[in-house]
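Lab meeting tomorrow. Look over both lines:
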Amino acid sequence: MIQPAKIQVRFSDLDILGHVNNNIYFSYFEMARIYYFKQLVGEDWDWRRLGFVLVKNEIEYLQSVLMQHEPEITVFLEAMGTKSFTLDYELKVGGELFAKGRSVQVCFDATKNQTIPVPQEMRDAFAKISRV
């Protein structure tokens, strides 16, 4: 099991009401996604040839994250297709759920500018975070 990604709330993340701006959650989920991929496929992965593009992103806000909070994000594989996969996110503070999200990614070879099947090594690595 991969430990949740720990996020540090920055002053610039806050809005005038003193809580993390709704748009910043997308950035937090992106940071968690990168953290998880480093754990799953390593830092030497060829992202240009065996990468992906984000095609859908959604968040459900349940509670406000504040400056003093120390959010942790867990990422799960929700679904796997031939060329795409869906990830779920749970943002917790002190073990309590504050937000949840979902993103859909399509595997992409940037050197050829085309979609590709999900690489087998990535499929195998997803078993560590699968809800399927």
